Every structure is written in structure tokens, then in C-alpha cells.
Amino acid sequence: MNTPKNAQVAIVTGASRGIGAAVAQRLAKDGFAVAVNYASSSAEADALVAQLTAAGAKAVAVKADVSNADDVRRMFETTEQQLGKVDVLVNNAGVLKTVPLADTSDALYDQTFDINVRGTFNTLREAAARMNDGGRIVNFSSTTLALNMPGYAIYNATKAAVESFTHVFAKELRGRNITVNAVAPGPIATSLFLDGKTEEQIQTFAKMPPLQRLGQPDDIASVVAFLAGPDAGWINGQILRANGGIA
Ligand code: NAP
Q1: How do the domains of the chain map onto residue ranges?
Q2: Whose CA is nearest to atom 32 of ligand 1?
Q3: Which of 42, 72, 104, 246 could in theory staple to 209 by disulfide, Cβ–Cβ 3.0 to 4.6 A?
Q4: Which pLDDT does position 2 carry in this prediction?
Q5: Which residues sit opposite 37 in a β-bridge?
Q6: Distance between CA atoms of 228 and 58, rounded to whole angstroms?
């Protein structure tokens, strides 16, 4: 996993756990120097960086709440200082609580929009000013947007906003040779999906795709690696639904 000299630099938001951690591992394996962003899980982020570094990769843990514009500015500055100018931005950080719309508190609405939408907005705005030409941006939507299940109104609304950002921002970066795409996973076995569900509910979700299993973080990391890599250069402004065929 040795990071080559003059390696391209990737920021992965929310990389302390779950899908983001798998993405950081995969990008490091593919030769990127990786900024492992986290908001509160410093022990997990430090452990991941130690693991990547021990394997010969270049990686740093960067604490930043993506919903805070100053934090995001500092995250780009720290990454530039420690690894170099950014080539790849993966907007993975996100939160989900399933609650019927009528029972959703103002606080939950604000938190979900602040992290999923404002967080993505903050990093995209910063990326426009700071990323290298020829770079790649990968946002995170969700296949729940296509399923319209009860309890997902607020979350789906945030992911609809992320999809809109993706389509428009791809066009606004005309001339920079930067692609902007989104991956929309189906159910993936991380705490975001598993927490609060009964074994029966988990099994119901696992049986939904024709491939008859839950996705694993690595299933999504390989999609992100593709979109971030040289083979995806002609894919731009697209949403890639990686979900085993659920929808
Ligand atoms: P997860 O296991 O709950 O991990 C979430 C990550 O986001 C953690 O590293 C967390 O770090 C970070 N994070 C949360 N709030 C943050 C903030 N304000 N600033 C920076 N980082 C923050 O979630 P996941 O399942 O890996 O989900 C990753 C992405 O995939 C999300 O955008 C989610 O909507 C999307 N997705 C997931 C599924 C699924 O089934 N799992 C399906 C479709 C889409 P800290 O612990 O440090 O806060």
C-alpha cells in the first residue's frame, strides 16, 4: 500500500467508521494520500490512520464538523499543509434517523439538513476554490430516495438536495476537468443502517435486493474508487445506484 511520491490527495469526510473508513482504506490502497475526516470518533480515526501508515500509505486524521464552514475551511488547509492540494473529495459524512415526518422534531430536521446538505454544500464550495483541476468529487445520496419508505421523508429530502447539487455543480465546474458524481447505496451493514433495527427488520432489508444480502462497506468503496479513478473520466453529473438491484 505504499503511497507514491507526488501521490494524488483525497479527502474522505466521515471516514472514522462505516463506509467512509472502507473508502479511505481503498483509496490508500489505490495510491492516494488520504485525509481521514471525522467529527467525534477520534480514537477510530487515529486507529485507521495508524493502520494505513503502518501499511506504507500517507494519511492524516482531520477533525472537522462538515456542517461548520470554518471547520471545513480548516480541513482543506490542514490537508493542503500535510498532504498537498486536493484532487479527490468524497462527501461521505451523513446521518440518518428514521422518524415519521409528523413526529420529526425541529432539532432532528436541523441536524439532518445541517450535516447531509449544508455539510456537502460547505465542502463543495471550498472544493471549487481549492481543488486541483482534473479532480474528482463523489457525493453520497441513498437508494432510499427511490424507495419512498415511510420514516425517510427528511433523510430522503436531504439526499434529493445532494443529487441536485451533483447535477448542477458538475456543470458549474465546466473547464476545470473535475467530475462530480454521486453514489446512492442501498442498505449497507454499518451502524447507520443497523442501529435501532430488530434482527427481523434487518433480514427483511437483506432479502430485498435480487442479490439477497446486505451490502458491505467494501461494495461501496469499490464504486467510489472507480468514480475517483482514471477509468471514470467520462462519467460526470451522474448518480450511481449501487444497491444489488433493489431499485
Ligand atoms: P456511519 O457508519 O454512521 O458513519 C458515519 C460517518 O460520518 C462517521 O465516520 C461519522 O464520524 C461521520 N460524521 C457524522 N456526522 C459528521 C459531521 N457533522 N462531520 C463529519 N463527519 C461526520 O454511516 P455510513 O453507513 O457509513 O454512511 C455513510 C454515508 O452513506 C452517509 O452519507 C449515508 O447517508 C450514506 N448511505 C448509507 C447507507 C447505509 O445503509 N449504511 C445507505 C445509503 C446511503 P463521527 O463518528 O466522528 O461523527
Answers
A1: 9-240
A2: 94
A3: 246
A4: 83
A5: 62
A6: 17
